[in-house]
Amino acid sequence: MKSLMMQGTRILATGSAVPDSSLSNDEISKIVETSDDWIVTRTGIKERRLLTGHNKSVIDLAVVASLNALDKISMNPAEIDLIILATSTPNDLFGSASQVQAQIKAFNAVAFDLTAACSGFVLAMVTASQFIRNGTYKNILVIGADVLSKWVDWSDRSTCILFGDGAGAMILQSSIKEDNQLLGFQLNTDGNQSNCLSLVYKEEINSHPILKLHKGYFKYIVMNGKEVYKFAVSQVPLSILKCLNSLNISINDIDWLLLHQANHRILKAVADKLSIDNEKIIMNLNKYGNTSAASIPLAFDEALSQGKFAHNDIIVISGFGAGLTWGTIIVQWKL
Ligand code: UT7
C-alpha cells in the first residue's frame, strides 16, 4: 500500500552528456555573417556542442547522462519507478522516454516525455516531486535533453549562434521530511506570447482532395530575441521573489543562482535586479550555448562535480523560455 504521508525529496545523483563535436564562434562566422566578438559580447557564448553523425538523436545523449547519474551511486536501473524526459526535440513525436527506459534497462519504470522548452527541466523536477511527495513513487529519473541543432535555421544568424546540444539527468528519491531538499517552487505560463519563440507545425496549402485534411511539417526555430530578453529579465526575478517569499527565505540567504543558461547578460541582469552577488551565478554557457531543457541539469552536474555546493546551501533554480513558460525551484543542498 502507498503511504499517504507527504514525503521529502532528495537529489541522489546527477549526470550529464554532451556530444564530442564542438563548433566555435569563429567556425560559425564562416557559415553566417557574425563574429566571435559579437557573439561573446551579446551572449557570453564561445562555443557549443553539436550532435553529429547518422541516426544520432536526443535519446543517445539522454541515455549517457542517465547512466552517468546511475553509475555515480551504483544504482540498479531496475530500481527506477518513473522516468520523465523533458525535451522539445524528441526522436519520435509519440515520445522518446520509453526508448531511454529500454536502453538503460529501467524495466520497472513508467516513462513519458514532457515538453516545455527551456523550462522543461524545472517542470519535470516539480512533476517528479509531486509523485514522490504523495508517496506514489520512490526513485525517479528526471532528464533534460535537447538537440536544437537539428531545428535551427543555420542561415539565421540571430538564432543559430545561440543553441547547442546536450543532456543532464537527476535521480530523485523520497526521504523523510527532515531530509527534504526541494523546499518549494513557483511556475508560470503566458500563452499570449507564444509567438515570441516557437517551432510551429506549418500546414501545406493543398489539402487532401477527398478528406479535406491538411498535412504539414515542423520547420525552424523562430524567435523575437529582444522580446524574449525583456520577458526573461522582467519575469524571472518576480518568480524568484514570489518563491522565496512563500518560503520566508531572504535574498541574503541565497548561496547559488542557477538560471537556464541562455545569455550571460540575462543571468547578470536577473542577479543585479535581485541584488545577488555575481559570484553566486553558476554559468557554463560559454562552453555549451543554450542547450534548452538540458542547460539546468548540465550546469547543476558541473557545479556539483566542482564541489561548489556545501551543506545547507540555498540554490535558486529558474527556467524560462518558449510557451512562454518560466518557473523557480528552491533547493537546499544536503551532504
Ligand atoms: O531559452 C531562451 C532562448 N532565447 C533567448 O535567450 C534569447 C534572448 N535574447 C537574446 O539573447 C538577444 O536578444 C540576442 C543575443 C538574440 C540578440 O542580441 P540583441 O542585443 O537583442 O541584438 P538585436 O537583435 O537587437 O540585434 C542588434 C544588431 C542587429 O543589427 P542592426 O539592426 O542594429 O543593424 C542585428 O541584425 O545585431 C545584428 N545581429 C547580429 N550581428 C552579428 C543579430 N544577430 C547577429 C549576429 N552577428 N549573430
How would you characterize this protein structure?
The protein has 335 residues and is an alpha+beta fold. It has a single domain, classed as Peroxisomal Thiolase, Chain A, domain 1 (3-Layer(aba) Sandwich). Helix content is 30%, strand content 27%. It contains ten helices and 15 strands. The chain has helices at 25-28, 36-43, 58-72, 97-103, 120-133, 157-160, 225-246, 264-273, 285-288, 295-305, and strands spanning 8-17, 22-24, 47-49, 82-86, 110-114, 139-147, 165-175, 182-189, 197-198, 201-207, 214-218, 222-223, 256-259, 314-321, 325-332. The strands form five sheets. It has a five-stranded mixed β-sheet with strand order 1-7-6-4-5, sandwiched between helices. It has a four-stranded mixed β-sheet with strand order 8-15-14-13, sandwiched between helices. The two termini are 30 Å apart. The mean pLDDT is 95. The structure holds oxa(dethia)-CoA (UT7). The site of oxa(dethia)-CoA has 19 residues, from helix 2, helix 6 and helix 7. Residues 34, 38, 42-43, 118, 157-158, 161, 197, 223, 225-226, 228-229, 260, 262-263, 290, 321 line the site of oxa(dethia)-CoA. Homodimer. Its EC number is 2.3.1.180. It is an enzyme of class 2 (transferase). GO terms for molecular function: 3-oxoacyl-[acyl-carrier-protein] synthase activity; beta-ketoacyl-acyl-carrier-protein synthase III activity. It comes from Dasya naccarioides.
Which structural class do you get from the secondary structure elements?
alpha+beta
What is the helix tally?
Answer: 10
Number of domains in the coordinates? 1
Mean pLDDT level: 95
